[in-house]
Amino acid sequence: MYKIGWFSSGRGGGSRALLTTTMDSIQFGSIKAEVSFVFCNREPGQSEETDKFHQLVKSYNIPLTYYSSRKFEPDLRKHNMEQWRDAYDIKVIESLDGYEADLCVLAGYMLVTGNEMCRKYKQLNLHPAVPGGPKGTWKEVIWQLIGEGATETGAMMHLATPELDEGPPVTYCRFSIRGQLFDEYWDEIMGKPVNEIRAASGEENNLFKAIRKYGLMREYPLIVTTIKAFSEGRVRIENGSVVDSGGRIMKAYDLSKEIDEGLKEKGLI
Length: 269
Known about the structure:
- By secondary structure, the chain is an alpha/beta fold.
- It has two domains: 1-121, Formyl transferase, N-terminal domain (Rossmann fold, 3-Layer(aba) Sandwich); 129-154 and 173-264, no CATH class.
- It is built from ten helices and ten strands.
- An eight-stranded mixed sheet has the order 3-2-1-4-5-6-7-10. A two-stranded antiparallel ribbon has the order 8-9.
- α1 packs parallel to α2 and α9 packs across α10.
C-alpha cells in the first residue's frame, strides 16, 4: 500500500477539511493509499483549533506525533533561524522513527522545512500559482495577476526545499481568468493602476474575489489528485526530478483536465 506522511500545524478549519477530503477519497476507494502518520508542530492544549485537529486525526486511527516548535529552543530560533530549523527537524525525524512514507504532504504546515527534513522525505507543498507564475502568498499572487493583466492562473504542488517556494514544480492545474466569468470584472478596473484598485476596494474587489474563488476551488482537488497520481505510479520523484510512469523526466504533471472534469461533475464550473 502506498504510504502518505502528513504534516500540518492544525491551525484552523482548513487543515481539518483537507485531511477529511483526503481521507474520504481513500475510504471510498478513489485513492489506493494510506496516511501512515500525521505530524503536528503544535501540542495538545496549545489552541482549541489544534485540539480539534488532533481529535480528527485520532478519529481516523492515524498515528499522531507532535513536537512543539514554539517551545523548542526559543533563544536559538530568535538568533539563528537556519540552525534552529535544522535542529528542530532532527527532533521531528527522531519522533517519526519507525514510520514510513513514500510521499509527504505539507498540508497547512506553517514551518519551512530545513535541509535535514528535505533530505529525509519527499515533501510536497501547495503554491497558488502555475509553474513560473507569481511567488508569495495567495493574496500577493492575485494582486500580481491583476497588475500584469494576466489571462490565466492556477495552482501547483512543488517539491519542498529549504528555500521557500523555490522547489521544482511537480504537479499543477491551470484555468483561464478571462471569458464570461471574469470579463465584466476586468472591465470594471480597465485603465486603473493596481495600487489604486487596492486602495479603493482591497480584497473586496470583484476581480480579486473571483480569482480567489475559482483558484481555491481547485486547491483541494489538486492535492487529492496529486496523491492519486503518485499512488498509481503516473508520476514520481527520482533524484530530485519529476518523472513519468516510464521514468522519463518531465517539467511537471498537468492535472488540469482531470480536476476540471471533477468540478464539472459536481456542477461547480
